[in-house]
Amino acid sequence: MKLKIIKSRPLKEIDDEVIDQALVNDKPEELTYESNPLEFILQKYPSLKETLVELLTEDFRDYINGIYIMAPKPTIFKIVLHNNQYFYLTWMGKNYEAKVSGKKYWLSNIGDLERATISISDLLMLGTPPTAQGPEAEMASTPEPEPETSEEEIPAAEEEAPEEIAEGKKGLGIKLILKEDTIKDLKKLGYRDQDIVPISKNKIKLLVPAKERMSVINTLVSKLKYTWDKDLKGSSIGGVIGKDGTVIIPKPAEKQGGGSAGLGNESFLANKINQTVEEVGPITVVFKSKGKTIKYNKVDAAEEAGRDTAGGKKSDIRLLSNGKVIGNLSLKQENASMWESADKRYKDLMVKLVNRLINKPYPNLGLAQSDKKDIYRLYNPKTNEEYGGIIITGLDKSDINSIVFGTDNPKTVVVKETFDEGDFSLSGTTLTVTVHDLLTDLKDIEGSKYEPILVIRHDSTRTATYGLRPIVYNKDFAYKGNELKGNKIELPFSKI
Questions:
Q1: Phi and psi for 429 in degrees, rounded to 5?
Q2: Domain-terminating residue out of 223, 239, 258
Q3: Cis geometry, peptide bond prior to residue 46 (ω within 30 degrees of 0)
Q4: Which among 115, 140, 169 is the end of a domain?
Q5: Which of 140, 164, 191, 355 has the fewest other C-beta atoms within 10 Å?
Q6: pLDDT tens per residue across span 319-373
């Protein structure tokens, strides 16, 4: 089987209907497994490429050395990183399951996707840094996808290539067996197995209370005669090196998986408020960012509301006083780039757009049939070059308001923060919560990096819309300043 790969670079404006970026009409190169196994696999399994983009950004090639098909059914891919660390992706029929450092993550689950991304980032910190400039700006660990609703056929594996055989002989299947001397030392100090989390065979996370991290380092140095390296990567306060060379990085137990009990960001905030109420009675809760302060009086309970999305609700946490909802909070981790997966919101728009692209394409934007039935790719009919996505500009203000604040009453406040113990301070009956940002009105959104934009991207699981999926992101996800990132094309909402 042979596929074709096309090189491209950004375009300038072509006509009044669609604004895009200039593409170069290079001569297509013939792609085979023998000539370029990595790109061949990515072309053959587009859902794999999309998953790598979600986990490692569009620049994922800068961080990996190879991809190997380890089993045909379920199809299991081994992703080898630039530093010879690795993780696995298993196709489960609708989505991928990631296996990183021995832990499994179901990637259709927002929390698992977040944790898998962080675990892969931990792997990338081992060894030498990659030769990559990195993203244009700071990025969240993951977007927030919704569970897929359509199935994709389980692909068959390629015949075992020489690269796979050679890779197997290198013995990259490292078992995370830690050195016993360090483990014994830590257990003598009272640490349990669940407190000791392996990162690699020579590196561990030691889960401790956030406020005790520095005292833990001092204890390891004074009692065990370990060495403190304050410049060690992976922690703001460095780490400790044991006598046998094991690197120990104290990490806040409250942040691992969203809290010491494996709680999510929402649960952490709700539990903190409810625990404080139990201790001192009804409290005043103050959320404070650099430019804004919001106060809720006589709070006697906080409840999670994330599963109640009927009618366009956006609240994750409800603050209560005497059984009445006095505050709705939508929590976004401070570097999160995604507002919502918009299949339902823009269902009619997607039907209209797909019909237009198939039956009467724009001069520089249409759909090309892929090698899968009913799955198409965005491309430029003039040059036959493929686009990475469409940016729909000019969204209606009512849509933006609904996307950000929803329909909750009282009006939802968007709180951007990844919570840990250091964000909370109690004075009398006032609990102050320091956060990254507070968004209360459209004026906080318009023209900022948080302004919602609609991105139409490839997703081969979306058979109902011919392999296209609408997602609403922050503006800075697709733009640097006012310039588009990557090989995308702008299309005004009014032109669909």
A1: -110, 20
A2: 258
A3: no
A4: 169
A5: 355
A6: 999 999 999 999 988 777 889 888 889 999 999 999 999 889 999 999 998 888 8
